[in-house]
């Protein structure tokens, strides 16, 4: 699994970063505005943070999920369960 946080350093971005850190989830941070814009399009939003999760599927394929803030917070919480 590869986790990426698209962030501008805003308060919500910092909250999500702290949640990821507290959960022990390794992630990359993208601050490049062009990349953030692409992630926003994929998540169908115009706000950050965006969290993307790349997972390997059983059939050897891949799936990328893009999440807005509230969905990302929920996902992080589920990783500890």
What does this structure look like?
This protein is an alpha+beta fold and 81 residues long. The chain has one domain: Glutaredoxin (3-Layer(aba) Sandwich), CATH 3.40.30.10. It has helices at residues 11-22, 33-43, 69-80; strands at residues 2-6, 28-30, 50-56, 62-67. Strands 2-1-3-4 form a 4-stranded mixed β-sheet. The longest helix is centred in the first third of the chain and has 12 residues, at 11-22.
How is the main sheet built? Answer: 4 strands, mixed
Order of helices and strands: EHEHEEH
What is the class in the CATH system? Alpha Beta
Strand order within the widest beta sheet:
2-1-3-4
Number of helices: 3
Anisotropy-based shape: globular
Strand content: 25-35%
Mean pLDDT: 93
Radius of gyration: 12 Å
* Full CATH superfamily name: Glutaredoxin
Distance between the termini: 17 Å
Topology, please?
Blueprint: E1 2-6, H1 11-22, E2 28-30, H2 33-43, E3 50-56, E4 62-67, H3 69-80
Parallel strand pairs: 1-2
Antiparallel strand pairs: 1-3, 3-4
In short:
This protein has one domain: 3-Layer(aba) Sandwich (Glutaredoxin), CATH 3.40.30. By secondary structure, the chain is an alpha+beta fold.
Highlighted features:
81 residues, alpha+beta, Glutaredoxin, 26% strand, globular
